[in-house]
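Researcher: I'd like a candidate sequence for this fold, 175 residues long. If you have to choose between options at a position, lean toward the conservative one.
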């Protein structure tokens, strides 16, 4: 009579030898895929945040220059006694005031602490110059302070782009 041999442990051992590497490979691929997708998602999020921050810095720089030109033109009109020009400049500034103020408020989201401080100083000087429109030096001080803020903004952007910082002498020599 033939005796039945129990081959089930050997069968399970063979199945285990085949399934274990496949299972480990599957788990490794799943973990690697999750990690890769997570890393790429973070990278895209950081790129979008950088793009939004860079856009804000460009708008802030434009706003600084526009305010400098406005103050110069406004002071010239006030000094010349040109009431019509003063009204025209004031109306033009008022029409863009909401966008300018929203850009200023966004500095809390995107700007560094030195940039926030420089912009606050410049805004304070500009507001003071507009309130006392008869004093020429107030407008000149405000334009100068806005120039300083522009340099801080520019250096902040340059730092984020990996470009060396500029000094006030380098910037003023190009004007």
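Model: Candidate sequence:
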């Amino acid at each position: 009579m033939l005796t039945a041999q129990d081959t089930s442990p050997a069968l399970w051992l063979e199945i285990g030898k085949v399934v274990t590497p496949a299972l480990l490979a599957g788990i490794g691929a799943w973990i690697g895929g999750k990690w890769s997708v997570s890393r790429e998602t973070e990278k895209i999020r950081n790129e979008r945040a950088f793009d939004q921050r860079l856009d804000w810095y460009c708008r802030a720089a434009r706003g600084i220059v526009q305010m400098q030109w406005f103050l110069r033109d406004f002071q010239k009109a006030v000094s010349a006694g040109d009431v019509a020009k003063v009204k025209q400049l004031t109306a033009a500034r008022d029409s863009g005031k909401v966008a300018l103020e929203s850009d200023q408020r966004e500095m809390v989201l995107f700007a560094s602490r030195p940039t926030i401080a420089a912009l606050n100083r410049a805004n304070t000087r500009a507001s003071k110059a507009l309130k006392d429109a008869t004093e020429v030096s107030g407008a000149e001080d405000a334009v100068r302070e806005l120039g300083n803020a522009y340099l801080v903004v520019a250096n902040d952007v340059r730092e984020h782009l990996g470009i060396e910082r500029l000094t006030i002498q380098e910037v003023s020599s190009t004007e």
